[in-house]
């Protein structure tokens, strides 16, 4: 008799995006012919840029000839790409890492979900609240929660991010073992300064915990003083794993390519020096056959000077959208956070509405779809996330419609 993994049954049903789709469809059925304007999704919309697209075309040409065909590559990723990432961290961030600290993957979400496998099921996990759902869900499946209590998961430590702490939570009160951090943050758009992140690194070193740092939006940071990689902080290479991706800066959401930095120097209580690095290598070699060689050719091109210039322009485009959204919402009196150094605007619902009430209001009156903040954790209640991913003309139309129909 086959029993399913009980931990999977502990997951609360994936409610947020299906419910958005359900309500949007219900509205469309009631209002045939009316156009829905979408500011809800975290999915890129602009084309892959020419230099990067050409590199992928060229790779397909190589694969199309017997003489230059290649099959499986290294599970850890192509040496050229790992080396280019090492060089990029050095030139862009002034951070010294080894090429074999970089593990290429099919995206940051998989790495964010899989990394918990390295740690004992008894580990106490801290997450930001609100947060990108994969950190919590993967640890529920990893058996680190005793269940959903209707608000959140028992056993996890929720680090509340709110307007009084500028959406930068304090370090945990007691001792935790794993800490998930994401900056620039999805969904709040918050960015973290060196001194703020240093407190987490110092906490981790003191408590011998490991930080899993999601830097997927690092390229959106345009103002000085904010952390783009956790290894900018002294001591981080002893206590931090970083995950990142080409999804949001090169438009690879569909192409699929990411990386994890797992330095040899990251420490654990058991197994001796380098164990976490060695086990991640072991895990990837057994459970993963490497990222697509076409995608990796694109990633390598994205790190070249031409590729970097193209990615910068692409990110500029979305930041331009973010600016239009933020200014538009503020012009009608809505209180907004993020939207600078980040593609997300975290807007407070007016008149004390809940996240879902404001969602319904925007859909009904402005025909605009946003993401209810409560879907990212209890501390997200009373907010909505507005995304700058969209064609400029659609973003402008959505903002105009909100300005016409909503009063802050
Ligand atoms: C979009 C996003 C990622 C990227 O995920 P991929 O799997 O690389 O596409 C990672 N973390 C966060 C917080 C994101 O919003």
Question: How would you describe this structure to a colleague?
Answer:
This protein has a seven-stranded mixed beta sheet with strand order 2-10-9-8-7-3-6, sandwiched between helices. A four-stranded antiparallel beta sheet has the order 11-12-15-14. It is 38% helix and 14% strand. The protein is globular and about 60 Å long. Helix 3 runs antiparallel to helix 10, helix 4 packs parallel to helix 10 and helix 11 runs parallel beside helix 13. With 408 residues, it is of the alpha/beta class. The chain has 13 helices and 15 strands. The mean pLDDT is 96. Strand 11 and strand 12 form a beta hairpin. Pyridoxal-5'-phosphate binds next to helix 5 and helix 8.
**If strands are numbered along the chain, what order do they take across the biggest sheet?**
2-10-9-8-7-3-6
- First-last Cα distance: 58 Å
Helical content band: 25-40%
Give every kind of bound small molecule, once each.
Answer: pyridoxal-5'-phosphate
What does this entry show, briefly?
The chain has 408 residues and is an alpha/beta fold. Helix content is 38%, strand content 14%.
Task: Describe the SSE topology.
Elements: H1 6-9, H2 16-30, E1 37-38, H3 50-63, H4 79-93, E2 102-105, H5 108-114, E3 125-129, H6 134-141, E4 147-148, E5 153-154, E6 157-160, E7 178-182, H7 194-207, E8 210-214, E9 240-245, H8 247-250, E10 258-261, H9 275-287, H10 293-302, H11 305-331, E11 336-338, E12 344-348, H12 355-366, E13 368-369, E14 371-372, E15 383-387, H13 392-405
Parallel strand pairs: 1-13, 3-6, 3-7, 7-8, 8-9
Antiparallel strand pairs: 2-10, 4-5, 9-10, 11-12, 12-15, 14-15
Pyridoxal-5'-phosphate binds at residues 42, 107-109, 132, 182, 186, 214, 216, 245, 247-248, 253, 258.
